[in-house]
Amino acid sequence: LPLTPDGQTPVRVLTIAGTDSGGGAGIQADSRTMALLGVHACVAVAAVTVQNTVGVSGFHEIPPETVAGQVRSVVSDIGIGAAKTGMLASTAIIEAVAGVCRELGIGQAGHVPLVVDPVAASMHGDPLLHAEALDALRHTLIPLATVITPNLDEVRLLTGIEVTDDISARDAAVALHALGPRWAIVKGGHLRTSDFSTDLLYDGEHFHELSASRIETRNDHGGGDTLAAATACALAHGYEVPDAVAFAKEWTTHCLKASYDLGAGHGPVSPLW
Ligand code: PLP
Q: Among its keywords, does the record have Nucleotide-binding (predicted)?
């Protein structure tokens, strides 16, 4: 991404998501990604997780009006080039976020690109969303999204489609796109059928495939957040969605290679600097 000359106001991106006390995923991954890419990170906290590298043992939800208030406060003063949502935990928070996005012209309600990472569970199975909140994701937030970035578990929860190969990935992309985002991505990083991690993008007309070598590491915590946050940074810089996702995928591959051991579980997908 282009560098901001010294002293000039950089591009700003807002993440609306959950914290990770272990510093691996969620808002910590988003803010780190943005800082490393030269973007100023604004943060609206939607939930606080009790978490380390082994797992998530609980979470506390921020009142929905406080979540929406953080977004309004940032946009009215600082201004943003893109927004990204991650863990939103409940129907009430999802509805508050969708409402404030419509009010402020974020996503397809206006001109500020919106990346919706429909976080439902960690990749190791800890729940991060109340099950009944899937409907709110489907019907209020996803229709506003410029691009959605579900992992394969989230694809199954949202569409009922189990992705096992190229054909089911295309079916899933079509079903996700029917929910109303401008672009749907089916991320193939967790599909262990080849040496490549291939993501499929669909805008209702064209499929784009993005492939990268699969990086084998146990330090895979926060990879989805990193991809979505880097996509938001590139969109804020004016990239079109396929170019933004291609950039983000390269960045995430670099971060997977630079990930490090931490605690007894899964270290973060990130370089230290
Ligand atoms: N914690 C928070 C707050 C998250 O937002 C996420 C993913 O989006 C996770 C944990 C899980 O991260 P991972 O699935 O990469 O382990």
A: yes
Ligand 1 in reach of 49 Cβ (< 6 A): yes
Instruction: Assess whether the C-beta atom of 224 lies below 6 angstroms from ligand 1.
Output: yes
Domain holding 60, by residue range, is: 12-257
pLDDT digits (tens, 9 = 90+) for 227-264: 999 999 999 999 999 999 999 999 999 999 999 999 99
Angle at 62 between CA 56 and CA 121, to 5 degrees: 30
Alpha-carbon distance of 255 to 123, in angstroms, equals 17
Pocket probe for ligand 1: among 21, 51, 122, 227, the residue whose CB has the most ligand atoms within 8 Å is: 122
In the chain, the number of structural domains is 1
Q: Is 30 in the pocket of ligand 1 (CB under 6 A)?
A: no
Kindly report the CATH number assigned to the domain that includes residue 56. 3.40.1190.20
Residue 159's contacts (CB-CB under 8 Å, 6 or more residues apart) are 172, 175, 176
Whether 107 maps to a domain, the answer reads: yes
Q: Quick check: 46 and 16 in contact, CB under 8 A?
A: yes
